[in-house]
Amino acid sequence: LRRADQERLNDDLKAKFQEGKTVDVIVKEANKGGLLIDIGDYQGFLPVSQLASRHYPKVDGGDPDKIFSRLKDLMGETLEVKIINFDSNAKKLIFSEKAAGDREQEEKLSQIKEGETVEGTVTGIVDFGIFVKIGEGKSEIEGLVHISEIAWGRVTNLTELYKVGDKIKVLIVSTDENRVSLSVKRLQNDPWRTAAKKYKISDTMNGEVTKITDYGLFVRIDNEIDGLVHLSEMMAEKAEKIEDISEKFEIGKKYNFRIISFDPDAHRLGLSLKSEDDDSKDKKKIAITEDKKEKKVSKTVAKTKTTVKKKEVSTEKTKPKTEEVL
């Protein structure tokens, strides 16, 4: 570009940045982090995180190669974006397609209500949740069901539960910051509330081991509630090593467990393989150990006091007598 044209472009880009106006750009290249866009002698970049939901690469497992492939599909496309960072000295621009759609997004958001149950279509599955399209035509908008909002129990593999194109019912949880948060689990009764009426501390029940970790076992109760058997609750004498746990327990098998803590509000369930007798023995051993420690400390303190007293007496005896001056 000629100098005059470049100055005109510079002023135009600066004005659009300051006024928050949109600009149409053509995607030149893609890398694993986003899209590369040139305007005149300015180098622009559109990060993946700033893409509109319709262009965001919803890839199973977050595979970087698959994400890169989806981004390359956008090369040559014209996108409406906003400049969110303008550096005239370095000739660098950062764009956001998401920000450019704020007004349109706000209009769509105004047409939906929090707490409303709607039917949607699964449009993408990622490690952290599923994307669901709700509404029709110009009112169509996409939301996210976070993995923590899929079910009341632990979910490890979303692709086993859903596939793109599935029709599902969701609850609109919130529309904060131009984002739609959805939930599937809140359309069902909270099983923790039901369990709170059914179980109490010290109850024994049958549960299925769903995961073995280096700190214990995850156990599913009533096919909906997940509890933890900590390593220290494996046996009476001392906790077993992870190698022994893997040999003794199998994922998918059921065993009897005892409830030692239960907080339905926090959705926490503590389980034990120990019997109540084992627990009592452990507590007794701890009490005896603590008592021994206290006695040992008391003896040490008493011995120290006696030693100090003897030294004081010895010092008094060896002190020279001061003669009176007449």
Give the overall shape.
elongated
In terms of DSSP E residues, the strand content is 25-35%
How many structural domains are formed by the residues? 3
Order of helices and strands: HEEEEHEEHHEEEEEHEEEHEEH
Total beta strand runs: 16
Average residue-wise pLDDT? 84
CATH topology of the largest domain: OB fold (Dihydrolipoamide Acetyltransferase, E2P)
Based on secondary structure, the structural category is alpha+beta
Assigned CATH architecture of the largest domain: Beta Barrel
Q: In the CATH hierarchy, what is the class of the largest domain? A: Mainly Beta
* Poorly predicted spans: 280-289, 321-326
Query: N-to-C terminal Cα separation, in Å?
Result: 113 Å
Strand order of the largest sheet: 1-5-6-4-3-2
Radius of gyration: 34 Å
| Main beta-sheet strand count, sense and barrel state | 6 strands, mixed
CATH superfamily annotation of the largest domain:
Nucleic acid-binding proteins
Counting DSSP H or I runs of 4 or more residues, the number of helices is 7
Helix content: 25-40%
GO molecular function: nucleic acid binding
InterPro entries: NA-bd_OB-fold, Ribosomal_protein_S1, S1_domain
Function: Binds mRNA; thus facilitating recognition of the initiation point. It is needed to translate mRNA with a short Shine-Dalgarno (SD) purine-rich sequence.
Protein name: RNA binding S1 domain protein
